[in-house]
Task: structure prediction
Amino acid sequence: MGDTKAKSPGAVQTTGHAWDGDIQEFNNPLPNWWLWAFYATVVFALVYWVLYPAWPVGGTFTKGVMNDITFVDSDGKKVTTHWNTRALLLKDLQDGKEARLSREYMNKVAAAGYSEILGDAEMMAFTRSVAKGLFGDNCAPCHGSGGQGVIGLFPNLADDSWLWGGRIEDIQNTIGQGHLGFMPAFRDTFNDKQLDDLAFYVLSLSGNKVDEAASARGKILFQTDAGGCYYCHTKAGTGLKSQGAANLTDQIWTIADVNGATDLETKKERVEKVISSGVQRQMPHWSDRLSAAQIKLLTVYVHELGGGQ
Amino acid sequence: MSDAGTEPLYQARIPIYPRSVKGPFRNLKWGILGLAYGVYFLLPWLRWERNVGPDQAVLFDIAARKFYLFGLVVHAQDLFWLAGLLMIAALLLFFVTGIAGRVFCGYFCFQTLWTDLYLLIERLVQGDRAARIRLDKTPWTAGKMMRKGMTHLLWLLAAFWTGLTFTLYWDNAPQLIVDWFTGRAPFAAYATTLFLTATTYVMAGLAREQVCTYMCPYARFQSVMFDADTRIVAYDAARGEGSQGRHKVSRELKSQEQRHQQGVGDCIDCGYCVQVCPTGIDIRNGLQVQCISCALCIDACATIMQSLGWGKSLVRYTSEKQAAGEPSRIWKPKTVAYGLVLLAAASALGWSVGHQAPLEMSVVQMRQPLFVRLSDGRIQNNYELHLENKTDEPLRLAITMRGLAGAELDVGRLASLELPPQRSLRVVARVRWQSHHDIKGSRSFFFDVIPQRRRDVGMVSAPATFYLPGRED
Result:
């Protein structure tokens, strides 16, 4: 290094050989910092081979020493493995500071009663943050990410109408056991005129202005064994929660999109379609897919969406 | 390549062996160094009583997103103060540099302080300048290896303690230091400590003045702020050189009178001012970009002049105008403007810190679904209220709303809730309102959160929007 610098600037060293009399080779040695960085990478590699998985040997490979990771696998068994990022992630998910805090809080919520949770702002905030994920994974495909549902297919969970009951224990039952919602098809029972009458009566229940004579005829069909609607919907039209029968007196329509129509004729047609075709809906049960604690969190979450009862 | 005049781009470092010196400026610098090190190395250990939070006076808690500074807790929302602080620091640098030159470089810069410490270690182990030059020239013996090794070991120890101390600002110091040495500290603690150990060792031990000359951007742009009135460390050429230039003391040029008669200046060319310079320049060549205004050459020349009885130091703080015999002034439009802006920025930051909101609320509309029709025909909108209590006491809060006549607010059973000190909470609020035929689209209103039984914490309001179906049926 020292003597190259002493030479005049721009002069390049040669290797000293001369071929065919005058052919010489320039000597441009690597900069020292480059060389030392290279040696450092060699040393790094040697240390790496000892500590981490490195060399393939036959069907297996060297596992490295002193970098073992212990975590609990999905069967609940303790596993100790050589260093790898997947195990590292699993371990972090189980033992990380956040994981421990979350577990601690989960236990607290699992041990608490519903009324205790509902009255505690912190537990509610925790419930919401965890249940939002659970809801998104399990419920949102049908009910929508905000529980808004789809008219005609999946009930809206964000309003205050509850087909199967809106109290905490009703919601917990619904999630845990699932439900079969069924209304028979009446297309063979009623003729077109009877369908018109019945539809007008049903619309009148929620305050729509309809032909009163038709509505009165519909009322008879509804409230007697001629139609038998009252078996499930009750004579007042408020619906039996045990049957998941809709309350026909409120402003919420879960099957026929009455609120989406502007004129009475369309409204009537939509109601008639439901009466003649019936309803068949199913919500699966979640008790063997989700833990009791998870169902508890979801219950509180769903209860809070619309305000609950 | 071989064109004449092509110079290599690489300038090998010329070793500098700064000599020690005594004097008022050196004492001032030792004082500043002691004060700065006292603060830096001891601050993490200072305890501070708090109702909630750590009992460390200064702690930057990244995980909890809170900075603790004595009685002040800086929350994530307050982080714009940092921007204010940086602006003040920049303005202070402009202001001071315009008036007094590179004061920061010479007295306060970390590079200067740590280089001073490293030079002190070097001197204590290897001796002063002459001894160090001699030692570097001797062949490698056991004694030389011992001295060199001891120097580097002490440097590394100082660097390590510097790095570790920095790390202690980010976690509970007494606990972290135990964890650090027992292998239980987080990876970030080791990485930070070792990185700063390495940089301190390399910058203060090996690179030294090259950091100032080649790396530091401040060194370059500070010279832009210089003008003819700026205080600089300068050599009094008129007195030092006379009409015939400087000359060493010789038989004919011994006393001041003899020298003056022959037109020779007071500078005896002893070279002391050059030997003490940490950046290795000769101040007698005038103002140079390498000069960090450390003023050690003033002390050096003063020592010589005093021993000769020839009066004051030939090197002194002056300005270009003053040196030329013209009046020099400090308060000029430029410095006054910097000063005013600095004052304004500092007052704004001070006001903002003094008026930190003890309670904060923000409202997020839950948009999926944006609104819901209820069984009685009313419309419901849901909101998430983010509440943050920045005080040291739990706050009992009542949540109310105003601006929507006849609307109902439902926060479940949390209409009155307790917010723990230094904590934040999210609460869902449902607002129900009769749908009006004459109002379409949306309507603005306010959420109010009212602290109960507290006079010192006022009500906090946040605006929100109530959405109605766009088309009425």
Notes: The first strand of chain B starts at residue 58 and ends at 61. The radius of gyration of chain B is 33 Å. Residues 142-168 of chain B form the longest helix (27 residues). The interface with chain A takes residues 1-3, 6-8, 12, 63, 366-369, 372-377, 380, 382, 410, 412-414, 417-420, 425-428, 430, 473 of chain B (CB under 8 Å).
